[in-house]
Each structure stands twice: as structure tokens, then as C-alpha cells.
Amino acid sequence: MSAHRTRWLLEKELRELAASRSYWLLLLVVGALVGHQFMTATSIYAEASGAGGGPAALSQGLSPLEGIVVPTFGAYDIAATLLFPFVVIRLIANEKQTGVLALTLQSPLPFSATMMAKLVALLAAWLLAGLAGAVALLAWRGAGGHLYGPETVTVLLGHLLRGLLTIGVGAAAAALATSAASAAIVALTVILGTWALDYVAAARGGVIASVAAYTPSAALRVFEHGELRVATVLILATLGIGGIVAATVWLREGEPVSRRVRDVLIVLVTVVALCTVFARVRQSRDVSEDRRNSFPRGDEVALRSIDAPLHVTVYLAAEDPRLADLERGVLAKLRRTMREVDVTYAARGRSGLFERPDQHYGEIWYQLGDRREMTRSTTDEIVLETIYRLAGRAAPPADTAPPYPGYPLAAGMRAAPWIFFVAWPLCVILAWWVGRRRPVSRRRAA
Amino acid sequence: MSVSAPTPLPESREPDSRSSPTSSSVDVRVEGLSKRYGAFWALRDASFDIRSGEILGLIGPNGSGKTTLFRCVAGVAPATSGVVRHREAPIAGKHRKHFLYFVPDGIRPWPDQTVDWVLRFAAGLHGAPAKARDEIIASLGLSSLLAARLRELSKGEHRRVMLSIGLLTPQPLLMLDEPFDGLDLRQTRDVMSVLTTHARSGRTLFLSIHQLGDAARICDRLVLLSDGRVAGEGTLDELRGRARLGPTQSLEDVFLALT
After folding, report:
1. What is the distance between the alpha carbons of residues B14 and B192, in angstroms, rounded to a whole number?
2. Which of B33, B99, B107 to mutate to test the interface with A (most CBs of A within 10 A)?
3. Strand locations in chain B (E)
4. Angle, helix A149-176 to helix A230-250, in steps of 10 degrees
């Protein structure tokens, strides 16, 4: 009986979504955005591959992940930021605005079941919107393009989690705000806040940078780099589900406000605690075909055999581009590979024009046991040599695995405009029209 | 609206028209219910009983606190103080849905869904059989509206759909906030007939009504609410006695005398 009732709840939420103009608008816009992104990406990729008689880039540099998949699905980042929140807000805020919440609270199923049905319906809606991206990938494959499954699926997972995060933020905003308009303002404020956090973190580093690693944009970049980082997955899922739980708690209008405030605070504290714990989880998998997030296999084996913790002291300001290179090219890989890596960001000042630079500025110190060595290099080869010297080991022999071949493709996508600017909108409009049709003859037939 | 088998109603519903509801056991007891919004008390120490199988009317002018009282009793809004007991046991707000169902006034749920789907949804969610749904559709004259979307309905039509949802629920106590609001005279009589038939099947009805004439015609007992306070409770005769009015005096006279 409970499953039967749950099916009704889910059908209700799906029907409410189908009745939402904002969702149909999202589908229309997503098709156009994906189409534009896909055509631009394939055009640039074709040029880099030597289309039109131009000089071809080195084939090793032509990766479909960053050349096609990431820019094409970048459309969903825009949709998740500027369109999807309104779909979420409508579905939740309507409960309050139409007064149906009083009926929902009396449903034979727990109120959490209603919210879970909303979550499932919204995730299904987000996945359905992903169809445009899937069509683009099929078109790419159809033109002879290469796709590497694990890295492609990881990007899709990143966007799914991005959607879940949007659902959480939108649901919490819709529940807490008094109207849908206010909820939209709250949701946009949160999004703008994460942008501001990204901006500040780029200049300041420290704790802010640690927090900013999980803003929607930053978290998505992890997946787009072909890295499946457990901490990022867990934190995005926790934030998304936490938003839904907070909304569920707040919408129980039969409970006194003081109790609901207390319960929302408990949810917030729990979410923060879980995120803090999850942030310490270091497990990650490099799923990129070109192993861009990993050292050569021989070096990985050698580094894993070093038991002593590695302490790194970096005298680089947060906004210094060398620090970004060091983070991405060395420190992230070391964290993934070695048992214990402890990094201290020791630059006190900022490298502004009128600031007196620290005498150590630019130095990067590596310490294993009681041996220390400094280098100013941010390239992985030199850093690895430094670490091997500190560990008293010889560098492993050069990797004999074949290098990443690259996948140049100078194919035109002539059908793409027809697919995304004609067929997709027509399908969306047709689906909307079919959904709007009355199930039986017109009312008041008599 | 066409009703399948209209039941004529007496001009004034007296206790003996059904199986002695006034002598039935107390099913729900509301004790000292109060609700405050800031400095304003919407309800003050409201206490009354709801007896098993009766049609209890909550009457009072607009703004007297009827809807607030309904929402607090139903547990969809928190009371500042007070207790609702079911068979003597105090029941927390979130658990009251197990023995009562409340249909609020003035809500416009699922505007884009058809009447047919909404009633199938309500029946499916609450486990009502298809036969019961069909009977309710027929009795409330909704057959011709099944294909209409809820946003296309008139106020009276919408009211009947909401009433149908309430009648499809299985809880022994059904609370309807202003069930006759928006209905014309004939529709009101027909809906009263449906509710009376429903009550005869053993369900307790608690109706919030601001039209005193309607209340006098359908209710077994009445709770008078004025400025958030219960000004009286009982059958019309009992209230007349309390107001020291003669047997021919109307509920309006009783209400004015007691409030």
C-alpha cells in the first residue's frame, strides 16, 4: 500500500513539473545552449585538428574531454545557475502559495516522503534536460569522434551532483522564503555568494580557499579535470540533500516556529560537520584517459613506498599563478599518491605592487623526516627529484607506457544546427502540447 | 449541479433526526486551545467536545478565529497552548492526521491538473476504492467537470472538488472549513444532503460555517465562537436555554444573545 501511495506522490510531482512553464523554458534554452556550445567546441577542435588547411596542433594535446565534453556540458552549468533554481522553487513554493501544504501535511505518508518524491521528480527532470548533451555526444560519436567512457561519465556525474546541489539550495530557499519571488532572490544571492567566495579565495587562500574548493564552479572543475574525488562527491551530495532536509523540516508548519528553527539549525550543524569530515577523505581516482591528474606509474609506485610524512611549506601568495600551477601539477598529485602530505601556505603578505615581498617569497620547502630541501620550481619533474633525494632513493626508470595519443578530428557538424535549433525545440514544443491536451473531451460537453 | 438522489433536509436539523449523536461518546476533546500572533490573540482558551458520529458546527462571524481554530485542531498550525485529546489521550499535532482530516477554505491546489486526475490521486493516496470515488463524483455532480482543470472551475465547483477530496479520506473525523461558501441555494441544499448521508454512515463531521441558517439546518450541535473565545456549546435547544430564549427563536438570535 505504501509503494502504491508513493507512486501516486511521484506521479503528482512529475505532473506538476510537466505543468511548469519554467521547466519547458529550461528545456528549450538548454537545447540552444548545448547546441551553441557543441558547435563552437567542434569548430575549434576541427581547426586545432587541421581543418581548412590550417596547421594542426600536436595530436597529444587534442583531448575530447576538454575539447568537446567539458565545453558542451558547460551549458548545464549555466542552466543550473540561472534556470533550474526557478523550476525547483516553483515546485516547492507552490505548496505554500496554493495552500496545498495543509493537505500535504495530512497525507497518509510522512511529509518526508512528499519531499523525497519532489527530489526524485526534480532529478528526473534534470536528467531529462541532459538529453540535449547526450544528443551532442552521440553526434560527436557519429562523426567519428572519440569518447573515453570513465572521464565522460565523471563529467556527467559532476553535472548530476551540480543539479542535486541546485535542488537543495532552491528547496531550502523556497521553504524559508515567504514567496517564490523572494526564494528566487535568495537562491540567486547564494549563487552570487559562491562566485564572490571563488573570487576572494583566489586572492586570499587559507581557510577561504578550502571552503571555496566546494563552491559549485570549483567542485565541477574537479570532475571536468577527469578526477573522481570522493570528498567532492560526498560534500556536494551532503549539501544538496541537506538543503532538502532543511526544507522538509521548515515546511512542517504544524510544529512551533521555535522547534523548526532548532531543527533547521541541527540540520545545518550536521551538514557542516559532515562536510568537515568528508573534506578529510583523500581517496580519489584519476579517470582521465591521459592521466592528467597523476604522476607516471613508476613514480606513483616509488612515492607510495615512502612511509614518512611529507611536509611542504609554500611561500607563494594565493593570487600568484605559480601557486595554481603547483597546486594542480604537483600538490594535488602528491596528495593523491603519498600516504601523508601536509602543506603549509606560509606567504604572509600578498604580492601586491606596493608590498614589500617576504625574503622567502617564491620558495617551496620539502621536508621528509629531518631532511629539508628548497626549490622554486613548480614542475613535477623537479619536485619529484627533490623528494627522491630527500628519501634517499633513486628516481624510478622512465615510464614505458605509450603516451596519450590524442584524438584529432577535423569533422564539420553540419547537422548540429538542425538538431539543436530546429528539431530539439520542435520536440520540446510537441511534448509540451501533448502534455497540455485534455485527457477526455472538453469540459462542460453538455 | 445535478445530484443522483437528493435527500430532502428539514428546515432545522434537530438532534432526533439521527441516531442520538448528542448522547454519543466524546471522540475528541479540545482543551484550552489558544493561538497568539504577536500581541494578538486569535484564539483564547477554546474548549469543547466533538462527539462520535455527530455533525458539529463551528459558527462565528468572519474574523472570529474559526479557521485558526480548525488549523490548530488539525495540527497544520501550532497552537500557543492547549491540548487536543482523542479518546482521552492527548495527541500531538503531527499525529492528528491519523484520526482527522481537514479541508481548508480558500486553497487552490494543483491548478493545472484535471478534476478527474485530482480525484483519482486523492482516492489512490488515501486508499479509497474506485466505487467510492465514482459515488462521490455522482453525488456531488462532478461528472461533467472531470476533464476540466482546477483553475478553470468556478468557486462553487472548486468547493465541491475539495469536498470530494475530504469525503474520499478514511479518517473518522472530517473537518470542513466553510463547506457551503460559494455555493448557491440549491447547491448548498444538495451538499448538505451529501454530508448528511455521509454522516449517517458513521463519520463525524466538524463544519466551520459563518451562515447561521445553514448551520442550524445541518448541525446536531454547535460551538459558538466570538473574538477567539467559545461563547457557547450545545444543541440549538440547549443554547436557547442558556440564552433564555424561547423555542421559536433562531440561531441568529441565540448567537447575538450569547456573544
Report:
1. 14
2. B107
3. 26-37, 40-51, 55-59, 81-86, 89-90, 100-103, 173-177, 204-209, 221-226, 229-234
4. 20
- Round to whole Å and give the CA distance between B209 and B67: 10
Q: Residue A159: exposed, middle, or buried by beta-carbon count in 10 A (0-12, 13-18, 19+)?
A: buried
User: Residue A329, Cα to own-chain centre: how many angstroms?
Assistant: 20
Our CA angle for A61, A67, A68, nearest 5°, is 145
- Cβ neighbours around B92 below 10 Å, total: 11
Instruction: Measure CB to CB from residue A98 to each of B76, B108, B116 and give the nearest one.
Output: B108
- Give yes or no for A14 touching B (CB within 8 A): no
Cβ distance A288 to A151 under 8 Å? yes
Yes or no, beta carbons of B74 and A102 under 8 Å apart: yes
Q: Pairing between strand A310-314 and B173-177? A: unpaired
Q: Do the interacting molecules here have an ipTM over 0.95?
A: no
How far is residue B117's CA from residue B114's CA, in Å, rounded to a whole number?
5
Distance CA A386, CA B5 (A): 94
Interface residue A9 vs chain B (CB under 8 A): yes
Residues of chain B whose beta carbon is less than 8 angstroms from a beta carbon of chain A are 71, 74-78, 93-94, 97, 101-104, 106-114, 116-117, 121, 124-127, 144-148, 152, 165
Instruction: Say if the Cβ atoms of A446 and B112 lie within 8 Å.
Output: no
Band of pLDDT at residue A354, cut at 50, 70 and 90: low
According to DSSP, residue B149 is labeled B
Nearest CB among A108, A442, A443 relative to B126 is that of A108
- In A, residues 53-92, which contact B (CB 8 Å cutoff)? none
Strand partners, A222: none
Does A99 touch chain B if contact means CB atoms closer than 8 Å? yes
Partner B contacted by A107 (CB < 8 A): yes
Cβ-Cβ contacts under 8 Å between A and B: the total is: 98
pLDDT, tens digit, for every residue of B19-76?
A: 444 445 668 999 999 999 989 999 999 999 999 999 999 999 888 999 999 999 999 9
What lies within 8 Å, CB to CB, of A22 at 6+ separation is A83, A86, A87, A90
Distance from CA of B118 to the nearest CA of A (A): 9
User: Contact, B77 vs A256, CB < 8 A?
Assistant: no
Question: At A399, is the secondary structure helix, strand, or coil?
Answer: coil
3-class SS at A214? coil
Going by C-alpha positions, the residue among A441, A430, A428 that lies closest to residue A23 is A428
Nearest-CA distance B60 → chain A (Å): 22
Distance separating alpha carbons of residues B259 and B255, to the nearest angstrom? 6
Cα separation values, A248 from A6, A160, A242, A255, B109, Å: 17, 21, 10, 12, 19
Strands A341-345, A364-368: parallel, antiparallel or unpaired by DSSP? unpaired
Rg (CA), chain A: 25
Contact assignment for B78 to A440 by CB distance below 8 Å: no
CA distances from B220 to A253, B18, B55, B58, B198 (A): 32, 9, 5, 11, 14
Q: Identify the DSSP state of B129.
A: -
| pLDDT per position as a tens digit, B198-231 | 998 889 999 999 888 889 999 999 999 999 999 9
Query: To the nearest whole angstrom, how far is the Cα of B220 from the nearest Cα of chain A?
Result: 26
**pTM for the whole structure:** 0.89
CA pair distance A191, A220, nearest whole angstrom: 14
Condensed to tens digits (0 to 9), the pLDDT of residues B6-17 reads: 444 444 444 344
Tell me the three-class secondary structure of A322-364, residue by residue: HHHHHHHHHHHHHHHHCCCEEEEECCCCCCCCCCCCCCCCCCE
